[in-house]
Automatic annotation (TrEMBL):
The keyword Signal applies. The keyword Zinc-finger does not apply. Residues 38-146, 175-373, 463-585 form the Plastocyanin-like domain. InterPro entries: Cu-oxidase-like_N, Cu-oxidase_2nd, Cu-oxidase_C, Cu-oxidase_fam, Cu_oxidase_CS, Cu_oxidase_Cu_BS, Cupredoxin. The lineage of its organism: Eukaryota, Fungi, Dikarya, Ascomycota, Pezizomycotina. Residues 1-24 form the signal peptide. This is Laccase.
Length: 604
């Protein structure tokens, strides 16, 4: 009932504002999944193809469209497809998380999600069963804004020709789906973790729109690119010839649990054989004036910094939502994040390299694509802003300032929260097992056959080690506290992603959040620790990487969309290892799950 009311409202809006060809489309989109040999980076392995393609085909929508997304599972195992960042207003059964919002889609079965594209912006769909992102199950979702959405381009220029060009660029963007790629399947990767007791993170290549190559560097180059603090910690040893920090540097990359290093597959961290894969060419036409490059991180394990040689970028949207545009040369990205950038096509027509470099201390590796001006010289050599290790090449390179990603139009959360949850992130039971609250690891398949959305009173749904239960129409604070004590000598950044509606990142600091609420903390913390006026509005909240001491980040959101929403680290191996919880938003007002979604109330 709730959803049909909502749809009626959207329909009314469509009728009032939209011209006829655009009117509230019903979009049907089907993905046929198969398990086949493929070679995205030039080396063959088994992987998931979507309609015979990798990455999957792009789903392009207009804001307000109703979508029927059908998964046809021809894989030899169960699956489910999630719509990352799509708020699923009134359709919690269509979120695509097995064990949370639905049962897994069995091999041979078909499942249709139905949802409304209520928000404009750049999103993506991806597998949410096991580690299927690592096997290639993902594709772009683009929702073009309604004409009446105020856009922030007049903060860049008031020149009417340029504004028209930006609007046109926004409607026909160049999405760059960035991913990391391993020659091991996700199952093999996970098996290596179980066999070694290591949290593993070495990959073979970085892909742009599914294309790339294995790039190898000499050991000397890799050593030169090793950041001095890492070199110091390596204490005389070096990164491997794949650019990876060895997992044996346990104090740096692992917890204090037992390991079996001899079980590490010989070719997982060492041995680099270059390949000649293909290169994504992004063709632009200087006569259009501007292009919109929409970066989407579909990375499983790596954190890329991206740049386009000789082109500064006006970043105008993050995680699908407009911001006050900010000019930057490089953007540091975490798993699942999206950044849309306007670039002016005013350089000498030619080819310019797009660089995608990992910036964590875990691996020195880059991937490339080409921005190619139509009619430009093909022999043009462009000037980089970052090197193979992701480090700026000159002092004048300006990184995107993430503390200043101000939503446009201005929007802010409620000044106080109704409930506060403090979660202690860290390892649990083994180096590759992670807990989002310090108490429990969340096995992905634990509720496969009785999803929490169908069973809000089950013992698991009532266990605060696994779920957070909120009342509808309340404001919730979640503080992500990153511990630094045994068994965690250090922790990498955790990009924690929340399903359904976005949240405001309202504060972050080093140390222990030793308070019961943000309101209390504000009395004691230095001015500037919290920002309730212009906080970022996002669907992921990355904790700082910690080496020297603990740190925390706090986000605030409104429980306004009743449903079971996953909250999890988007590093695939951390999710596999248990780093998740489910938020049961508005569990007091949950709608009945429509019969067509297979709701069987299995009871507690
Ligand atoms: C464009 O005009 C608006 C309204 O006058 C103004 O607020 C804005 O700053 C102008 N933009 C630029 C880039 O000058
Ligand atoms: C660094 O290496 C040296 C020589 O192998 C060894 O004696 C020392 O204990 C190491 N230091 C650390 C902090 O591991
Ligand atoms: C890649 O292709 C180029 C041009 O055909 C060739 O010169 C180079 O040797 C090839 N490299 C590898 C690793 O196959
Ligand atoms: C690039 O090619 C053009 C024509 O093909 C030539 O005129 C120019 O000198 C070349 N530039 C370089 C740097 O090789
Ligand atoms: C990179 O940028 C930083 C900060 O602006 C600067 O200190 C450093 O010198 C730059 N690196 C190079 C190689 O110029
Ligand atoms: C939650 O986890 C803690 C620590 O593992 C445990 O002591 C407690 O019993 C658990 N609570 C429930 C309700 O299972
Ligand atoms: C973790 O377990 C402890 C001990 O049972 C309990 O006090 C605490 O509330 C639990 N934390 C969560 C998030 O459930
Ligand atoms: C690892 O850390 C735990 C605390 O979480 C501690 O009890 C244990 O002794 C540590 N093990 C080693 C080998 O240091
Ligand atoms: C937290 O606050 C309590 C009470 O003020 C204090 O006793 C305790 O030492 C504090 N803990 C930390 C880690 O700061
Ligand atoms: C905090 O700082 C802001 C800007 O620097 C200032 O406007 C405000 O008055 C300060 N608030 C307090 C409580 O000091
Ligand atoms: C839940 O709260 C939101 C936000 O206040 C409200 O719009 C919505 O109607 C409520 N839903 C239900 C089912 O009460
Ligand atoms: C530990 O992580 C592995 C995946 O690496 C997972 O299969 C296993 O269930 C986890 N164990 C626990 C106790 O969470
Ligand atoms: Cu993590």
């Amino acid at each position: 009932m709730f959803s049909s009311c909502y749809r009626a409202l959207i329909l009314a809006v469509c009728l009032v504002f939209w011209t006829s060809p655009l009117l509230c489309a019903q979009v049907k989109f089907a993905v046929d999944l198969t398990w086949e040999l493929g070679a995205p980076d030039g080396q063959t392995r088994y992987m998931i193809l979507v309609n015979g393609q990798f990455p999957g085909p792009q789903l392009t929508l207009d804001q307000g469209d109703d979508v029927e997304f059908t998964v046809i599972n021809h894989l030899p195992f169960a699956t489910a497809v999630h719509f990352h960042g799509i708020e699923q207003n009134g359709t919690p059964w269509s979120d695509g998380v097995p064990g949370v919002s639905q049962k897994p889609v069995a091999s041979g079965a078909t499942f249709t999600s139905k949802w409304t594209a209520t928000q404009y912006g750049t999103y993506w769909y991806h597998g949410h069963a096991e580690g299927q992102v690592q096997d290639g199950l993902y594709g772009v979702i683009l929702v073009r804004p309604n004409p009446y959405e105020p856009s922030p381009f007049s903060l860049i220029t008031n020149d009417s020709k340029s504004l028209r060009a930006m609007r046109m660029a926004e409607a026909t963007p160049k999405p760059l789906l960035l991913s990391d790629w391993s020659h091991l399947t996700s199952d093999q990767y996970m098996a290596a973790e179980t066999a070694t007791g290591y949290d593993l993170f070495c990959v073979d290549s970085m892909l742009v729109n599914g294309k790339g190559s294995v790039n190898c560097q000499t050991q000397q180059t890799l050593n030169q690119l090793t950041p001095p603090p890492l070199a110091h910690l390596l204490n005389g040893s070096t990164v491997t010839d794949r650019g990876c920090t060895p997992p044996t540097k346990a104090d740096l990359t692992q917890g204090n649990f037992t390991t079996q290093g001899s079980n590490l597959p010989a070719d997982m961290y060492s041995g680099c054989t270059p390949t000649n894969g293909s290169v994504e060419i992004v063709e632009v036409d200087a006569s259009s004036g501007w292009a919109s490059i929409n970066f989407i991180s579909a990375m499983s394990l790596k954190s890329p910094v991206v740049s386009i040689d000789e082109h500064s970028m006006w970043v105008y949207a993050v995680d699908g939502h407009y911001i006050q545009p900010q000019l930057a040369d490089t953007i540091f990205m975490y798993n699942g994040e999206r950044y849309s950038a306007m670039i002016q096509l005013d350089k000498t027509p030619g080819d310019y390299t797009i660089r995608v470099a990992n910036f964590g201390a875990d691996q020195i590796i880059s991937g490339y694509a080409t921005l190619s001006y139509k009619y430009g010289a093909k022999n043009h050599t462009s000037v980089p802003s970052i090197n193979y290790g992701g480090v700026n090449t000159t002092a004048s390179v300006t990184p995107l300032d993430k503390s200043l990603l101000v939503p446009f139009p201005a929007s802010a959360p409620a000044p106080t929260a109704d409930a506060t949850y403090i979660l202690n992130l860290g390892r649990k039971y083994a180096n590759q097992n992670w807990s989002l609250n310090g108490n429990a690891t969340y096995a992905l398949d634990q509720d496969y056959n009785s999803p929490l959305l169908f069973n809000p009173e089950s013992p698991r749904a009532l266990n605060s080690n696994y779920t957070i239960r909120t009342k509808n129409d309340t404001w919730i604070d979640i503080v992500l506290q990153v511990e630094l004590a045994p068994p965690n000598p250090a922790q990498p950044a955790h990009p924690v992603h929340k399903h359904s509606n976005k949240a405001y990142i309202i504060g972050s600091a080093n140390g222990i959040f030793n308070y019961t609420s943000v309101a209390e903390a504000m009395k004691y913390m230095p001015n500037g620790t919290f920002n309730l006026q212009t906080p970022q509005l996002r669907d992921s909240f990355t904790t700082p990487s910690v080496l020297l001491g603990p740190a925390w980040v706090a986000f605030r959101y409104q429980s306004a969309n009743p449903g079971a929403w996953f909250l999890h680290c988007h590093i695939q191996t951390h999710l596999d290892g248990g780093m998740a919880m489910t938020i049961l938003d508005g569990v007091d007002t949950w709608p009945d799950v429509p019969a067509e979604y297979g709701a069987v109330n299995d009871g507690p």
